[in-house]
Amino acid sequence: MQPDTAVPWQACALPADAVVLGHVHDAWGVRGWVRVRGVAQGGAVLASARRWYLTPPTEGPNAVRFDAFAAPVQVRVRQVRRHGDAWVARIEGVDDRSTAERLRGAVVQVARADFPPTDDPDEFYWVDLIGLDVVNREGVHLGVVHELLSTGPHAVLCLSADEGRVQRMIPFVSAYVDAVDLAARRITVDWQPDYD
Asked: What are the RimM N-terminal domain coordinates in residue numbering (predicted)?
């Protein structure tokens, strides 16, 4: 399917460091704003990034009906703000509800290079922790981070070891996490292999 030349987005290559932050849930209002949902830790990124990449949905009912574009597109973001349990955004060139509705289901991604720096040296973006090796104080390899879960009060590192045969979950709190070394791609924890 060829993109419609009357719409304000252009096909582009998706950056290698693109990170999925959510999806366009629906149009919001009558002036072209969109509501973005599915944002876990990425709210600060959505609020600060002025360049988003949108890709067609690959699953769900919107994947069947989606006709706005067939390949990734880059859009410029004019405004973003928190609204209840979601974020609302105004995209450059999307000035009416019907154009905004065409974006329903689009996956919202931002290049990792466009993330703002964290305010605290002990604060990390989850995407930077995925793939890190986790070792305990004795140097025993406990696994590789494959996911983080938000449990409300804190995040939990989900590890996989022994080719996926062993799964571990470690609270990502200072009581258990001694150090995160992004350069060495390692997290050191106060945890033993036999902890449940």
From this structure: 21-113
131 shares a domain with 110: no
Helices vs. strands in the chain: H and E counts, helices first: 4, 13
| Number of Cβ atoms within 10 Å of the Cβ of 138 | 7
Q: Cα–Cα–Cα angle for 190, 195, 196, nearest 5°? A: 130
Which tokens in the block code for residue 124?
Answer: 């990390």
Distance CA 156, CA 167 (A): 13
Q: Which residue has the tokens 């009581």?
A: 175
Per-residue model confidence (pLDDT) at position 40: 63
Residue 84 backbone class (left: φ over 0; alpha: ψ -120 to 50; beta: rest): left
**pLDDT tens digits for range 119-178:** 888 888 889 999 999 999 999 999 999 999 888 788 899 999 888 788 999 999 999 999
Is 110 found in the same domain as 130?
A: no
Q: How far is CA 189 from CA 49, 133, 158, in A?
A: 33, 11, 13
Among 44, 97, 98, 107, which residue's Cα sits nearest to residue 73?
107
Span 44-61, pLDDT tens digits: 888 889 999 999 998 877
- Per the structure, the complete domain to which residue 73 belongs is given by 10-114
Domain count, the chain: 2
Q: Based on the domain organization, do 184 and 90 belong to the same domain?
A: no
CATH of the domain at 142: 2.30.30.240
